[in-house]
Amino acid sequence: MDFLPIFLNIKDKRCLVAGGGEVARRKAGVLLGAGARVRVVAPQINAALAELPRVESIVARFEAQHLEGVTLVIAATNDRAVNRQVSESARARNIPVNVVDDPELCSFILPAILDRSPLMVAFSSGGASPVLTRMLRGKLETMIPQGYSRLAAFAERFRELVKQRVANPAKRRIFWENMLDGAVAEKVLVGDEGSAETMLQQMLENEDNIQRGEVYLVGAGPGDPDLLTFRALRLMQKADVVVYDNLVSAPIVEMARRDAQRIFVGKKRADHTMRQEEINELLVRLAREGKRVLRLKGGDPFIFGRGGEEIETLAAQGIPFQVVPGITAASGVASYAGIPLTHRDHAQSCMFVTGHLKDGTMNLDWDALARPKQTVVVYMGLHGLDILCAELIKHGMPDSTLIAIVQQGTTQNQRVITGTLATLPGIAEREQPQAPTLIIVGGVVTLREKLAWFHPQKS
Fold this sequence. Notes:
Helix content is 35%, strand content 20%. By secondary structure, the protein is α/β, with parallel strands linked by helices. It has four domains: 14-110, NAD(P)-binding Rossmann-like Domain (Rossmann fold); 147-209; 214-327, Tetrapyrrole methylase, N-terminal domain (Cobalt-precorrin-4 Transmethylase, domain 1, 3-Layer(aba) Sandwich), CATH 3.40.1010; 333-454, Tetrapyrrole methylase, C-terminal domain (Methyltransferase, Cobalt-precorrin-4 Transmethylase, Domain 2). The strands form five sheets. The protein has a five-stranded parallel beta sheet, sandwiched between helices. It has a five-stranded parallel beta sheet with strand order 10-9-13-8-14, with helices on both faces. A hairpin with a 2-residue loop joins strand 6 and strand 7 (119-123). It starts with 13 loop residues before the first strand and ends in an 8-residue tail after the last helix. The mean pLDDT is 91.
């Protein structure tokens, strides 16, 4: 972060605005809206600014003495030399200062603001693109209606009562989430606060029935955070604990609730942080502690993700769970690499297999895989690449068949290496691709040269 986002209480505090034009008037209006008393200093002050309530007008050039008793400063003149003087004088006194459209002279910046008081949303580009932040504010204006102001005020009104009745902090948070995402909130948003209050009181009387321990088995997709589902994002923000593996990209892990506990249970070849049986037991234990557990898995949890084993254990132990599908690596990675998995001229079927070696061998149905007009997608097959290519050739697939290795697909580190069954093992030995990888075999690989450049992702 270039700036620390904070909210300042300036109610009844004196703030200074240097400048007397329209920009200064707008900035003074923001400060007044936050309850400040505003001192305006400029050789000329327009009437619209001077007539604002709680504004002290000083018609003069700025001098350091004007900072006496000031909590915060905004420089909004059209003279950079004056703006610099204001900035340097304020910094010398450790007074926060903002210079309009000049981030270099700022010790703080004013964000774009969405006001649903007492709910406030503020966001910024750090001065890089004010227009972009205004555009985003416009989008949020449509997503967060004015009724959320009433909802925030309603929650504030009952905050102490709920705190007294629901003593456990984790349980209290779940209570509020259920309230704010349920029928009570709907009543408040449509203006029926009487019914909402009655329903909230009923929830408090039944607070012992608040659901506690639960597991969310969520597919994180192949790596690009933009490929997460809306449901996955919603549950990621509710979870108390995040249990994630090696295939979940760091940006996705960071999208979980910031204060959630994070537990890494990643597995690499010949290096298991935690055995699968131990992961199953961990999920059960955490849920029994009353926690909502987010089990993040790369791709889709039910496609070579061992999600079935985990929910079998949860079901046997009576632990509530939800399963959220994710975009599996096969479809996501192939798409970003410009390789369609099926195509009328090249492949009428597609098979997903795991290439994980066991005892140095790869036990697959080679006759089924070597059929013509078919795409074969191999998960976890990099270390058995030479066996894969040799067996496919042995079982009748032409050695000229195209094959691709996609490294860290859908991420900024995506890399695609292509060759034939005969040549790719040697190419991979030279290029040294790094896991995680996906291997795609078949005629559809010929389309990559035509289609890859259409996708914005670097490959």
